[in-house]
């Protein structure tokens, strides 16, 4: 588990972000945001001692290149950056920000390309999607030798438990029911 958290709650809306702020979760993920919101939401997160990862590919109004990563690292200062793009991961690592490479397990060809990218970027973590394929989570961990977050299509507590049993460090999900199920302050 990631610092004691089985779940990394992912906020797709301000309502979900507010739920994270009022919870015992220390870590969370921002998914769908707008560049104009970033400074304010990170200010709120910091006031509540929340360490929020930012999915840089889903920031509206921001190009996904190394300049965007530099801006995010220097001005917004997220706890970590999640991206499918190697240049974003490399810049985050250079700036001392936790780098999470998002990998889609679509088919063998896509997975092989992802392994090659992972060798180049050497992220701190990998987020594999979909996260409901336990035997593939095991393979990615063994082959890449990098800790894995499981995300995508995680709908039940059983999905979470299977991903964790397969070796995932944590599970990212925007499912409100799972947020509540795994909260430590119940």
From TrEMBL:
Pfam families: G3P_antiterm. Signal peptide: none annotated. The keyword Transport does not apply. InterPro entries: Aldolase_TIM (IPR013785), GlpP (IPR006699). Regulates expression of the glpD operon. In the presence of glycerol 3-phosphate (G3P) causes antitermination of transcription of glpD at the inverted repeat of the leader region to enhance its transcription. Binds and stabilizes glpD leader mRNA. It comes from Paenibacillus nuruki. This is Glycerol uptake operon antiterminator regulatory protein. One of its GO terms (molecular function) is RNA binding. One of its GO terms (biological process) is positive regulation of DNA-templated transcription. Keywords: Glycerol metabolism, RNA-binding, Transcription, Transcription regulation. The keyword Secreted does not apply.
């Amino acid at each position: 588990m990631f610092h004691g958290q089985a779940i990394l709650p992912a906020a797709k809306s301000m309502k979900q972000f507010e739920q994270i702020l009022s919870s015992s979760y220390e870590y969370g993920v921002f998914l769908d945001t707008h560049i104009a919101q970033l400074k304010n939401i990170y200010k709120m997160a910091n006031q509540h001692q929340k360490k929020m990862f930012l999915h840089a590919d889903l920031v509206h109004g921001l190009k996904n290149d190394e300049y965007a990563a530099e801006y995010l690292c220097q001005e917004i200062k997220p706890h970590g950056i999640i991206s499918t793009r190697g240049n974003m991961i490399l810049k985050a690592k250079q700036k001392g920000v936790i780098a999470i490479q998002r990998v889609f397990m679509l088919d063998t060809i896509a997975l092989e390309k992802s392994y090659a990218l992972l060798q180049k970027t050497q992220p701190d973590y990998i987020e594999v999607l979909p996260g409901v394929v336990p035997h593939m989570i095991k393979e990615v961990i063994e082959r890449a030798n990098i800790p894995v977050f499981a995300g995508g299509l995680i709908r039940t507590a059983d999905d979470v438990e299977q991903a964790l049993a397969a070796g995932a460090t944590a599970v990212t999900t925007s499912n409100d029911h799972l947020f509540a199920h795994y909260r430590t302050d119940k």
